[in-house]
Write a structure and sequence with these properties.
The chain is built from six helices and seven strands. By secondary structure, it is α+β, with helices and mostly antiparallel strands. α3 crosses α5. The protein is globular and about 40 Å long. The structure holds zinc ion (2 copies). InterPro entries: TF_Znf.
């Protein structure tokens, strides 16, 4: 698989049983749909993800075609934006994978840190990620961000898998 930005070959990073692909050049991260699915575990059932505030209002999503290619299917990715959050995600509506630029990852974390729910979630994932330390395989620079990264995976799992049919509908209807 190749990086949608610079065509560098993507490498594997492993968090617990979740595998993602990152670009050693620009540090963007690719998540397959199945990888997102795996991010969900039994402990999640104790959390009410439906009440999680971020991106709750589906009418505030915005979509834009990009020139970037999905590393898996080689079709154009769609940029998904939410309101004024500056959070952008590249989404493949064909395979439902997600590409995150390094900058986008930071933006998402900053956005979430301004939300009250962040503290609760963060504590939750910190506890989880402590158990994951020993099975972590990936570049050191990702290590510090493991908790954030893991939380984001769970969030995406919910937003893009559970709510995918509706998001997909919005994407279809935003492209004239
Ligand atoms: Zn890259
Ligand atoms: Zn794809």
């Amino acid at each position: 698989m190749e990086c949608p930005r610079d065509n560098e070959k993507l490498e594997k990073v492993l968090f617990h049983n979740i595998e993602a692909d990152y670009c050693p050049e620009c540090l963007g991260i690719w998540f397959d749909k199945d990888e997102l699915r795996l991010a969900k575990d039994d402990k999640d059932k104790q959390l009410n993800w439906l009440d999680f505030d971020i991106w709750r209002d589906t009418s505030r999503f915005d979509f834009l075609r990009t020139q970037r290619l999905c590393p898996v299917c080689r079709v154009m990715l769609v940029e998904v934006k939410y309101d004024d959050s500056k959070v952008k995600i590249d989404f493949c509506k064909h395979c439902q994978g997600i590409w995150l630029d390094r900058g986008e990852f930071k933006q998402i974390m900053n956005y979430m840190k301004r939300k009250a729910d962040y503290e609760i979630l963060h504590r939750y994932t910190i506890n989880l990620t402590k158990e994951l330390w020993e099975v972590f395989s990936g570049p050191e620079k990702f290590r510090d961000e493991l908790a954030d990264f893991f939380m984001l995976l769970k969030l995406f799992n919910y937003k893009f898998i559970v709510q995918h049919p509706f998001l997909n509908y919005l994407i279809e209807n935003s492209q004239k």
